[in-house]
Amino acid sequence: MSQVLIVDDEATIRNQFRDFLANWNVEVLVAGSLPEAEHLIAGHDVGVIIQDLFLDAPVTQVYEFIEKHCGPDLGREAIVITGYLAKADFRRMVDIGAYCFFEKPVSLDELLIATWAAEGRADRMALVNGRRGRATLSGS
């Protein structure tokens, strides 16, 4: 099973999301910045990234991060969270292929359901694309 990476500059939110998802047996990693997230992605099997849109970084860097690390070809999905959603941000998230988005405050139950769904889709895409060392079926 792949891991979920939570990227948010607010430690309280990272910890709340981590603790809640871990109670449901979701393997969780946390990062407070994009460089820290890059480091974790390089060393772990991350299938879903729960990404705060407005970090202590320009929003354009967050978009670039999501485009670089998420999508069907990579077998990794992005769930974007924000407290300040503008129509342009929503369109941009759709354009870059974010799996879904939530406005803060986030229902933890809805986040869990979205995480499970995104992880399932990421795992299926990884199988199709032969990524992340997943087992495949072969005929005899």
Keywords:
140 residues; alpha/beta; Rossmann fold; five-stranded parallel β-sheet; 5 strands; globular; disordered C terminus
What is the topology?
Layout: E1 3-7, H1 11-23, E2 28-31, H2 34-43, E3 46-52, H3 59-69, E4 77-82, H4 87-96, E5 100-103, H5 108-129
Parallel strand pairs: 1-2, 1-3, 3-4, 4-5
What would you note in describing this structure?
With 140 residues, the protein is α/β, with parallel strands linked by helices. The chain has one domain (3-129): Rossmann fold (3-Layer(aba) Sandwich), CATH 3.40.50. It has five helices and five strands; from the N terminus they run E-H-E-H-E-H-E-H-E-H. The chain has helices at residues 11-23, 34-43, 59-69, 87-96, 108-129; strands at residues 3-7, 28-31, 46-52, 77-82, 100-103. It has a five-stranded parallel β-sheet, with helices on both faces. Helix 1 links the parallel strand 1 and strand 2 (28-31). The radius of gyration is 15 Å and the shape is globular.
